[in-house]
Write a structure and sequence with these properties.
Elements lengths: L5 E7 L3 H5 L3 E6 L5 H11 L11 E4 L2 E2 L11 E5 L6
Parallel strand pairs: 1-5
Antiparallel strand pairs: 1-2, 3-4, 3-5
Length: about 90
């Protein structure tokens, strides 16, 4: 039996909105996709995010989780740039 894909919302904060030209998007992912794999897909869809790979902070449902966290339908990924002092 074929597994149904899951939908996961992705929210972009701060200047990530400028890089992606949107505040949010929805990813349609195969079941079993982890956060790291989703981040890779996001970088493919939004190439300007590639240069931020090492400094992107990612949370799932507003909690920081390991990159191997298996995403579930309805969860939200939030992407933040590094905190800047001033």
């Amino acid at each position: 039996m074929e597994q149904m894909p899951i939908d996961v919302k992705v929210n972009f904060f701060s200047y990530f909105k400028d890089l992606t030209e949107c505040e949010s998007t929805v990813l349609h992912l195969p079941q079993g996709t982890n956060l790291d794999q989703a981040l890779s897909i996001i970088r493919q869809q939004y190439p300007k995010m590639e240069r931020m790979e090492r400094s992107t902070l990612a949370a799932v449902d507003l909690e920081y989780v390991a990159k191997n966290h298996i995403l579930k339908a309805g969860e939200e990924i939030s992407l933040f740039p590094p905190v800047q002092g001033g």
